[in-house]
Design goal:
Distance between the termini: 24 Å
Helix content: 25-40%
Shape: globular
Largest sheet: 9 strands, mixed
Radius of gyration: 17 Å
Number of strands: 11
CATH topology: Spore Coat Polysaccharide Biosynthesis Protein SpsA, Chain A
CATH class: Alpha Beta
């Protein structure tokens, strides 16, 4: 199993940082520390801590910044990094971006969004949930109070995920998908096909819509509740401030 990070996004709501950096490289260390720790650092550190030795990173917007740091990141975390170019990062949404990593999926992956600050306990929870024929396991926050913007999930204890979308009444949801997934190698082909069908239907769809496509085809996607964990998806400057508060505790 290897790590996989989606780091192709522009993150325009985080300007001026993202004028020159992809969202995954926006500093989440102390404010003003321009060369400090990033979401990508935190994610690679988590992967290394759970024993992974290889990580694929899907890059697009301002990808040169990731290429420039590749060697230093490899040395810092003891990982071998492979960068995968997303040629449509500024045009299409992340269903296509994850499909660009379809060869990496064949290795079995721990997938993490490049904008999610979270502790290594999330990866440990997913790894502990492996087995019993599970092929895809989503990290699910069942504690957080949900609103309209979150990626909400309805899960059935016996059947796994039934619905995953932002477009849902929060009161209906079992919890929020936090942007971290364990994908076994056996699921790679079916997931890649579902992602392709998804972005061909609409290039602006999310990879979570690809998960819904799989569910609609009868594929079982499981969930693993992460408990009462501090984490944040960094979309804007308020999120960034919260991310800085959280990151300093890990």
């Amino acid at each position: 199993m290897i790590g996989l990070v989606l780091a192709a996004g522009a993150g325009r709501r985080l300007r001026p940082y993202t004028d020159t950096l992809p969202k995954a490289l926006v500093p989440v260390g102390p404010e003003g520390a321009q060369d400090g720790i990033t979401v990508l650092d935190l994610t690679l550190g988590n992967f290394a801590e759970v024993g992974l030795t290889e990580v694929a990173i899907i890059v697009g917007y301002r990808k040169e910044a990731v290429y420039e740091r590749k060697e230093a990141l490899e040395k810092k975390y003891g990982l071998r990094l492979t960068l995968i170019d997303n040629d449509k990062a500024e045009e299409w949404n992340n269903a296509y971006s994850l499909w660009c990593g379809r060869d990496a999926l064949k290795e079995g992956v721990l997938l993490a969004n490049g904008d999610t600050v979270h502790p290594v306990s999330v990866e440990k929870t997913l790894l502990a949930a492996r087995g019993d024929g599970k092929k895809i396991i989503l990290a699910l926050d069942t504690v957080k109070q949900l609103a309209d913007e979150e990626m909400k999930v309805v899960a059935d204890p016996g059947k796994g995920v039934r619905k995953i979308t932002k477009l849902m009444d929060p009161a209906e949801a079992t919890g929020e998908y936090i942007g971290v997934t364990l994908i076994e190698a056996e699921a790679a082909a079916e997931l890649a096909d579902a992602l392709k069908a998804t972005f061909e239907r609409d290039p602006q769809l999310y990879y979570e819509d690809g998960y819904q496509e799989l569910v609609d085809r009868g594929f079982t996607i499981d969930v693993a509740p992460i408990g009462d964990v501090e984490w944040v998806e960094i979309d804007n400057h308020d999120d960034l401030a919260k991310g800085r508060e959280i990151a300093c505790r890990y």
